[in-house]
Amino acid sequence: MRQFSLLSRRVGLVFMAPAGILVATFVIAPFFWVIFVSFTNRSLLGRTAVHPDFVGFANYLHLFDPSAFFTRGEFGFSLILTTQFVILSALFGQALLGIVLAWLLQSVPRPLKAITEAMVIGAWILPEVVIGFAWFAFLDYDNGTANMILSALHLPRGDWLLGMPFWVIVVFNTWRGTAFSMMLFNSAFASIPPSYFQAADVAGASSFQKFRDIGLPLIRGHVVTDLILITMWTFNVFTPFLLTHGGPSYRTELLSIYTYRVAFKDFEFGKGAAVGVMVMLINLCFALFYLWVARRRSHEVKA
Amino acid sequence: MNRQFRLFASRMGFSVLTALIGAGFALPLIWFLFAPFNARAELGIAIPDPFTLSNFAEVFRNGFALRGLLNSLVESVGGVILVGLGATLASYALSRSPIPGKRAITYVLLLFSSVVSGSAAMVPIFLIVTALRLIDTQLAVVLVFAGGLMPTAMFILRDFIDGIPRSYEESAMVAGASPLQAFFDVALPVIRPGIVVIVVWAFVNIWGSFLIPFILLRSSEKMPASVAIYSFYSEAGTPVVTLLAAYSLLYSLPVIALYLFVSWKFGFRFFGGIKA
Amino acid sequence: MATVRFENIRKSFGAFTAVEDANIEVGDGEFVCLLGPSGCGKTTSLRMIAGLETPTSGRVLIGDRDVTHLHPRDRRISMVFQDYALYPHMNLADNIAYPLKVRGESEADRHRRAREVADILKIGHLLERMPSQISGGQQQRTSLARALVYPSDVYLFDEPLSNLDAKLRLEARGFLNHLQRDLGMTAIYVTHDQAEAMALATRIAVMDAGRIVQYAPPLEVYRRPATTFVANFVGNPPMNLLPVEAQISEGMLTCHAEGLSLEPLPLSRAATAALQTGSRLTLGIRPEHLGIANGADRNAIAGKLFANENMGPEALVTLERADTERLTARIFTDDILRLGTTVSLTFDTAHVHLFGPDGARLPFDGEERP
Predict the structure, then answer these.
(1) Which residues from B are below 8 Å from C102, CB to CB?
(2) What is the 3-state secondary structure (H, E, C) of A85-130?
(3) Cβ(B41)–Cβ(B34) under 8 Å?
């Protein structure tokens, strides 16, 4: 009994084939292969490039070796560094700044809103290499714009990239990513019926009160969504590499940069794969949490 | 009276605060307004005197730089074609065809693509590309991009196609069209705006990407502009600022143009977060 | 043109049965309306004729052909969809001409034919416009034009007037009526609007929860509804349905209900056999068959005046009876009726309908079962 459908199952599968092959090769296969490689001592050069040995959990044990865990340049240090980076740059940086901007921009004159939005979004859409270079110039000790301004204000110059590299990348990444949160919260606020705020105006509420009592509670779902998404992205971000290369002395070596160094500078693919698997596991937790939250919200909407 | 003043003062306060934040965001980019047009540009801000286009001329004389832009173009166009074709066909099938488990497929794909991120997948992608003997080829870069962007593209397009009334294709078939005719005559033109969004988004992603070509390419003549720029300023010694500034500006132009185009055409609607 | 037949059609979606045991035949040139509330299975049935759904069991025949498993394009049908399905990227001429394009006709021929049909439907001057640039009524006619531009055996309509406003709907309805009679189209039309069905159909198939409960010409459905469902669905305002208690003696039925006085009625022998004293029945009487009683009327029903709506040509008077049942009557009076006063309405027993405990019609003596 062949049921009628707009596209037969056979043709449908043919339609899905090109995308399916690409995804299978470059997304699904790597997922399984990286797990496999993490259990070997594969490298780029030498004997183990052609005949890697199966080493079981050796790579993982090495990563989590308690004696070296917190040493700069090791996995543990990088993990903790990245966690701090995410909390500061994503949660306190992008999300906070994003929501404040979204709220402020509702009440400022249109030209100011347009220009500010253009600046914030510009930081987000310009290619990463370009902004890496722009910040490189910005923070230059002798001539960079930052120090020029400080000198003009008779404040001491800073040796940013060498002296406080971690804070540099935190600020850098916040600057880079705030636009996404700003736009998300912008559209979230815009979806609240204006009459809610007008009623509060009539009752004499201040802007902060309206934000705290009306705006924030009504977009709670969006806040959670945003936090999960930017946490995930910031956790995996590679762009700070373009500014600091993970240095000086591994002080800004995020997990992504650590992976790169282990695999492509030290040529230890087995170990790099192990790091990759750890990162994927953490990503998986984020992603599953996001799906769970999303499904709960869609159930709420239906109910 | 008092209330009105308070309102005015808080408005002023907001504007000042906003202006400060905006200025803060603009600060690192101000240098970019001047340096490309300054024949003696350095890392500091300096008003060019005179404004000149000689830096751009220098870029156009530099074969390596030009080659970089061309490679970026080739990779972006190639990737966009694959993503556009693949995602359109696959999303149409997911929306209209009775494939078993199709809801699960979309979510599983999304899950995979967010888990297998750039930094986690570095090693296996490199190994797979090596195994396919495609290391140091543009083709590998295009394929890897296409594969990586496909799940999100499919998710967005499938949602879009689901919103198109099935009565379009149904009426076409009642009128005598075969399923493929209905797809090309009636469905595809209506899907086109969604495809445009996907194409623009994919282009911007590929054009600006650094890590994938950085890992997969060895020969300098195959490097796209992103890697070329990086090698210009990270080499030991002082970077040639004039060249770099102009080159970076040229490199940024397509992205800026596309953003303006999208926000003009679509009022920059927000698609629930689609930056990879 | 051709006939259409459903043989033992059944359609289920998983555990849910949308259409059950449907057997219907539509004659050449007939206009059949599938009438019923949402979810009754009428659209599913229409889509099975079109080929957009495949029956779970049973056969669909168009003419002599068994089309049950044929693709819609091979069935020689035309269909007008509820949302018109006008392709937004094509102008009206291309929209109307599309079926001819699919058949490989030349552009000149296609557009000439499209113009012919458009002129008949009075939209010939709009052919260069896009669907978004014309009004709802014009869109509806464009959709119709596309259905008429090529020869078909059967014309299917899925609630084509439901998106039009009231006045346009009447105009379009009259036009469809004229068109169908003029061209002798075999038409099958889905609607939930009983007035549309009454106005357009040669026969109405009333559907309830997946079953066809009555299939008869409009006047028959109106004057001899087969069940309380049909009685309540067809007719505006709906038929008044009163629960009564039966008392049978010697083939005569006496009905008892509060405020009701009704002379004994002769039941048919089959009906008498099926009932006994104490059975709960339903008495039906249409609003237009009720009039204000004077003291001498033998058959009357009384209640307190609940609402008096003067509509212009008539007044709709609603009474509330003791057991909170309401009764509506269509009467012509300029009398001032006061809220709460007791009013008595009279009727002729010829206009009384009787329904059994299961809701099915009980015929009187001498009346045939429909």
Answers:
(1) 172, 175-177, 181, 185
(2) HHHHHHHHHHHHHHHHHHHHHHHCCHHHHHHHHHHHHHHHHCCHHH
(3) yes
DSSP annotation of B149 reads H
Q: Could you give the 3-state DSSP secondary structure of residue C295?
A: coil
Q: Do A184 and B270 touch (CB under 8 A)?
A: yes
**What's the one-letter identity of residue B165?**
P
User: Under DSSP, is residue A267 helix (H, G, I), strand (E, B) or coil?
Assistant: coil
Q: Which residues, in sequence order, are CB contacts of C146 under 8 Å at separation 6+?
A: B171, B175, C95, C96, C98, C99
- Closest residue of chain C to A6, computed from CA coordinates: C52
| Helix, coil or strand: residue B76 | helix
Residues of A whose CB is below 8 A from C52: 4
On chain C, the residues whose CB falls within 8 A of the CB of B190 are 87-89
Q: Chain A: nearest CA to C67, how far in angstroms?
A: 12
**Which residues is A134 bridged to in the sheet?**
none
What does each C-alpha distance from B34 to B29, B44, B52 come to in angstroms?
10, 10, 10
> Cβ of A207 and B27 within 8 Å?
no
Contact at CB, A133 and B10, closer than 8 angstroms: no
Residue whose entry in the numeric block shows the structure tokens 């997948």 = B121
The answer for C53, left when phi > 0, alpha when psi is -120 to 50, beta otherwise, is beta
Contacts by residues A53-62 (CB-CB < 8 Å, ≥ 24 positions apart): A55/A270, A59/A270, A59/A271, A59/A273, A59/A274, A60/A274, A62/A271, A62/A274
| Cα A293 from chain centroid (whole Å) | 19
| B167 interfaces chain C, CB cutoff of 8 Å | yes
Question: Strand, coil or helix: what is B274?
Answer: coil
Which chain C residues are closer than 8 Å to A11 by Cβ?
none
* pTM beyond cutoff 0.95: no
Cα(B262)–Cα(C317) distance, rounded to whole angstroms? 62
Residues 6+ away with beta carbon under 8 Å from A175: A123, B25, B28
Q: What are phi and psi of C316, to 5 degrees?
A: -100, 110
- Closest-CA residue of chain A to C48: A4
Amino acid at residue number C345? L
Q: Say whether C53 and A4 touch across the interface (CB within 8 A).
A: yes
Predicted confidence (pLDDT) per residue in B75-115, tens digit = 999 999 999 999 999 999 999 999 888 888 888 888 888 88
> What is the C-alpha separation between C70 and A264, in angstroms, rounded?
61
pLDDT tens for B136-161 read: 899 999 999 999 999 999 988 998 99
Q: Chain C residues within 8 A (CB-CB) of chain A?
A: 51-54, 56, 69, 71-72
Q: With 80 as the cut, is the pLDDT of residue C58 above it?
A: yes
Identify the H or E element spanning C346.
strand C342-346
User: Which among B107, B272, B91 is positioned nearest to B194, based on CA atoms?
Assistant: B91
